[in-house]
Design a protein that fits this description.
By secondary structure, the chain is an alpha+beta fold. It contains three helices and four strands, in the order αββααββ. It has a four-stranded mixed beta sheet with strand order 1-3-4-2.
């Protein structure tokens, strides 16, 4: 009887709590990394428009890409399943996709900077589900240089 209680209720709850705690720790660590890297961007411009206002016509242009696959932890999955029963916005997934977009932009900027670009124009995003609990986020655009 004690083993049945442990395996039937307590163990899944402990695993859910552990998954949620580790996931939250990873989320906070990634958020700090994003803020630090975004602050280091300086004057690098990423825009959805075809030109950077006030800059001369570029002398070269090339495609740059940043992509990331983001996955949810057990805590987010559990909350999402509950939210699915009652309806409404799943904010934890929205934050996850937002972090994915920010990471994809930073990776595109790193690609552009490695080519000595001064900015990225015509930036676009694509998001696709890979599994029920993971999504791919791609940021692509045209890196330009003087």
């Amino acid at each position: 009887m004690p083993f049945d209680l442990l395996s039937g209720f307590v163990l899944p709850v402990l695993l859910l709590a552990l998954g949620g705690a580790v996931g939250r720790l990873q989320d906070h660590r990634h958020e700090r990394s994003l803020r630090r890297r975004e602050a280091d961007l300086g004057g690098f411009v990423v825009t959805v428009t075809a030109r950077i206002p006030g800059r001369p016509e570029p002398t070269w242009a090339t495609l740059v890409l940043g992509e990331v696959v983001v996955a949810s932890d057990y805590g987010k999955q559990f909350v999402a399943r509950l939210r699915n029963l009652i309806g409404g916005e799943v904010r934890s997934y929205r934050r996850l996709i937002d972090r994915g977009r920010r990471e994809a932009v930073l990776r595109a900027v790193e690609d552009a900077r490695s080519r000595n670009a001064v900015g990225i124009v015509n930036a676009r995003f694509e998001t696709s589900m890979i599994t029920a609990n993971a999504a791919e986020v791609i940021c692509y655009g045209t890196a330009i240089g003087d």
